[in-house]
Design a protein that fits this description.
The structure is a homodimer of 337-residue chains.
Chain A (H helix, E strand, L loop, with lengths): L2 H13 L8 H14 L9 E8 L14 H12 L3 H9 L2 E8 L10 E3 L17 H20 L4 E7 L3 H13 L3 H4 L8 H18 L6 H8 L2 H16 L3 E3 L2 H13 L7 E3 L8 H7 L16 H19 L3 H4 L5
Helix pairs in contact in A: 1-2, 2-13, 4-13, 5-10, 6-8, 6-9, 6-11, 10-11, 11-12
Chain lengths: 337, 337
């Protein structure tokens, strides 16, 4: 983070024709981006969105309102441009890439989709480690490779999204392990479980945590035990973005679990993250709190795919435009208070 | 409101490839706009922004952190394109018009500014009625005329903004009168008063309410007693938009006071309003509650000028794009939960 540019941007905000602080989070977002991009007037010209998709063995425990086939069906929907994130990417002029890191059945060759399947879904994390250590490294590497492609293409902002039936269970397990919170406080309805379903999910997560033992091992081991291919890929991408100085907008519940894993594995990664939205999934607040994050939006979204981060993109752009284009008191001949 | 279109839009949302309700407020915004625009797939192609500017006699009581000269200076800044709302309008491709309904000193002829000065500022509302009944009618008529220009130009969404040093005091007085809340609960720092200044402001509002007597008269009389030219103009514009079926996005504290006046004067006006943001000005919550309004954004803005409504514009557009362009389960061959 370029603290000098951050301070220069902060000073500029104080000179713009408005009461100091009156643009609230739009001011702080511009100042944060100035520090990240190392530029007193930051901008978002080339946003890059990657969706990592994978399946989860834990769906066998009955933790999702949707059948597992939806993961592959949604990969096809991404390819055809019909999913929410496709619409958001088009509206924002963002590049969109889909990486299949482990769907149960390969959806076949599809335009815009990279086949990088590590396995046909993870193992059931309530019974055994979700990934082997090697598989987890492969997924992290897929994330790093995606960040490298974004950088090669000149991206100035990175959004990672995910798709994977069952992945709120894996994300909840990770958040519990990293924060020490009880499963009942972190598990929620996901795509639409009823109260009995949420209780079952919490029991499944409790079983996984018990199996895994006290979460005292290295953060990467916890990720392999309880995560998923797409979560590990997001984690790898976040770490690579931070190392390269590319700002990230973190999406909702699952992305925040990956962000938490990234910060535990590579402390300092958090400094390169902005947070798009507060998810309707109740456990998101715990992950945000652990990351000391205040998201921009709170619209009751709970879709994933990077949709909450992509929805925040126009606000970040407005923040940059205001910061760059407003007149100063001196330029406009306006009296200061 | 076209309830049939609202229901058709709601049904469409249930068919799009996402868990039902998972786009949260972006779903309800699209459904609300469908009912307002009478179209199953609403859109925002021609947003229209009007800033009403005027001065306030009550600044003599020491209720503002900025000098009164700033109103005229900011009118010039609007004309030159340097203010926050100018940047937001440009970024959103919105038409922007400025109407001077009563600055203390005319800033002279300026491009993009209509000179419609009713008087050189209002009278001091703590001592006497802010406006005569006739002046209040003139200001309401200026608002109606602005709405008519927007409609003539084919606008499909209306945003009203305001500028006027001292106008958080007038807005607070109106909100107190309409809701019965005590001044201490509604008055806040505005452009930047310290705690002593806020107390002074609350005392000034209490004096005005006492002078005016129990707020049992017609709503329009309360508006004349305690309001301002720009607030009455906003009120007239909102009523005219509702009567013509043009959706409105209400901005922050002052605009919400005008919205409250509009709903009290012409019940049903509220149905044509969306709410852009929750202001950092503490009394805004009271006005929103009285209007049963849940704003889209909560970014700590407290600038006025319509900036919080304009910042919500891209989100409303994303809501329309998602509603229009996402694939249905049937189109995409995705299984429903």
């Amino acid at each position: 983070i370029d603290q000098g540019m951050r301070e220069a941007a902060f000073a500029r905000q104080g000179q713009l024709t408005k009461p100091p602080g009156s643009l609230g989070r739009l001011e702080t977002a511009a100042v944060d981006l100035a520090g990240m991009q190392g530029c007193v007037t930051p901008g978002i010209e080339r946003p890059w969105i990657v969706i990592f998709a994978a399946d989860h063995g834990v769906v066998a425990a009955g933790v999702s309102a949707f059948p597992q086939s939806v993961t592959g069906e949604m990969i096809r929907n991404f390819s055809r441009g019909g999913a929410a994130i496709c619409v958001l990417a088009r509206e924002s002029g963002a590049q969109l890439e889909v990486v299949d890191v482990g769907s149960v059945e390969s959806p076949g060759e599809l335009p815009g989709v990279r086949d990088a399947r590590i396995a046909a879904g993870t193992a059931d994390l309530s019974q055994t480690a979700a990934m082997t250590a090697e598989q987890c490294q492969q997924a992290l590497a897929q994330g790093r490779a995606a960040a490298a492609r974004a950088l090669d293409a000149g991206a100035d902002l990175f959004i990672g999204g995910e798709m994977g039936i069952g992945n709120t269970t894996a994300a909840a397990a990770l958040i519990c392990a990293y924060t020490g919170l009880a499963p009942a406080l972190v598990c929620g309805p996901g795509t639409g479980l009823d109260a009995a379903g949420v209780s079952r999910k919490a029991a499944v997560v409790a079983q996984a945590l018990k199996r895994q033992g006290a979460a005292t091992g290295p953060a990467v081991l916890t990720l392999a035990q309880l995560g998923g291919f797409e979560i590990a890929a997001l984690c790898g991408a976040y770490i690579a973005c931070a190392q390269a100085g590319l700002p990230v907008v973190v999406d909702g519940f699952i992305a925040s679990a990956a962000a938490l894993a990234a910060e535990r594995m590579a402390p300092g990664t958090r400094a390169w993250m902005l947070f798009g939205h507060a998810s309707a999934e109740p456990g998101h607040a715990a992950a945000l709190s652990a990351l000391q994050a205040q998201p921009l939006l709170d619209l009751g979204l709970r879709l994933g795919e990077g949709s909450g981060a992509a929805a925040a993109l126009p606000l970040l752009r407005l923040a940059c435009a205001l910061h760059r284009d407003m007149a100063t008191f001196a330029e406009a001949g306006v009296s200061q208070g």
